[in-house]
Amino acid sequence: MMQIEWDDKKCTSPRDCRKCLDACPEGVFMIYPRDGRKPGKVAGDWAIMPVFLTQCTACKICEEICPQNALTVSVES
Amino acid sequence: MCEFCIEHGQGTKWYLQTKNYAEELLNEERKRYITDFYERFEEMAADGLAAMDKLVPADLAVPKVGRSPIAEGMKQQHFGQVIPLEDVEKILDFTTSITRVHCVCRSLLHGVYDDRYCFNVATFKSDFWPKGVWEQWPDYSKGIEILTVEEAKKEFQKLDRNGLVHSVWHYNAPFIAAICNCAPTDCLGFRMMERGQRPFFKAEYVAAIDIEQCNGCRDCVKICPFGAIAYSPASQKCTIHQLQCFGCGLCRGVCALDAITLLDRNAIPVLAKEW
To answer: Which residues of A touch B49 (CB under 8 A)?
Structure first.
């Protein structure tokens, strides 16, 4: 299985960018509000999570397309 | 008949039974379930997918319904079935409240909040879906739209032509309250198939091509979301692989020669066991 590290210090606006979500051929990523969804509250603190990691082929298209270099793909032996 | 038709439909299509949409079923417990479902959707999806990683071995080739405890458990909680356009229209005909909202799967997988592919339907006058559910979360509330039956039918026809698979979904069996329009890449239910799980049944139908009429144009091949249709350069015709066909009927809608019809899955011995 692959490992994908997402650096939230580099990726500051995943909700506006979304490039990794759309570019990944296997649809590995999801985006979610880390502060949760509560009535009346605009969800925030968006994070990228590689949730279909078993589908990752380590093609590194996400690494290349990320404008902030926030993603690192590594192959686990 | 799928097992829901037997259990919730007395041997007829369960999703055409008005009793499965009844107002009495929308009790306090179900309301809480539905609200919680959407409030914690991302969290549940992440937990569920992580659990599947642990459960599923390498043999993911042929996803079967209910093959694992996760899809099996969803049969009680939130499970669906593919239905063709004419059955969507039959449901809309006995529906009185239709709320169109943006799709939670697409927001999760693509971060978009303006794709309104989900329709909550009710057979009773109710503002439960727009006000009780969606309006409370600002991310979702912008996408709420109340439609008449005629407006909804027009939208579904458009969605059909655009290659979106229709499906009905229950919230705690047997209460049906949603019709989805899914693309396999953007739907969490479809994506679960990559992990050997499928939280929905195939349709009560299967598509078939009349090769006398087929001119090999391949429009059906292009629209099939299940990769079930192949073109043979030898015969210059298209054929549908019945075991891969989910019976959604999208191919029929784009066939300019009307060469494709939907057959009753239950009348074909092998397919009658293929859900």
So the answer is: 51-52
User: The domain containing residue A24 runs over which residues?
Assistant: 2-75
A53 contacts in B (CB within 8 Å)?
53
The interface predicted TM-score (ipTM) is: 0.92
- Look up the CATH number of the domain holding residue A60: 3.30.70.20
| SS3 at position A32 | strand
B54, B85, B179, B183 from B88: Cα distances, Å: 37, 5, 8, 17
From chain B, pick out residues whose CB is under 8 angstroms from the CB of A18.
110-112
Domains of chain B: 3-201 (no CATH), 205-273 (3.30.70.20)
Chain B contacts to A (CB-CB under 8 A): 38-43, 45-46, 49-50, 53, 107-112, 136-139, 185, 191, 194-195
Encoded tokens for A47: 């994070």
pLDDT in tens, A12-66: 999 999 999 999 999 999 999 998 889 999 988 999 999 998 889 999 999 999 9
Q: How far is B150 from chain A (nearest CA, A)?
A: 32
Distance between A24 CA and the closest CA of chain B, angstroms: 11
The pLDDT value given to residue B49: 85
List Cβ neighbours of A76 (8 Å cut-off, separation of 6 or more).
A1, A2, A3
> Mind listing the pLDDT tens digit for each residue in B143-177?
899 999 999 999 999 999 999 999 999 999 999 99
Neighbouring CB atoms inside 10 A of B22's CB total: 15
Instruction: Tell me the residues of A at the B interface, defined by beta carbons under 8 Å apart.
Output: 14-15, 18, 21-22, 27, 29-33, 36-43, 46, 49, 51-55
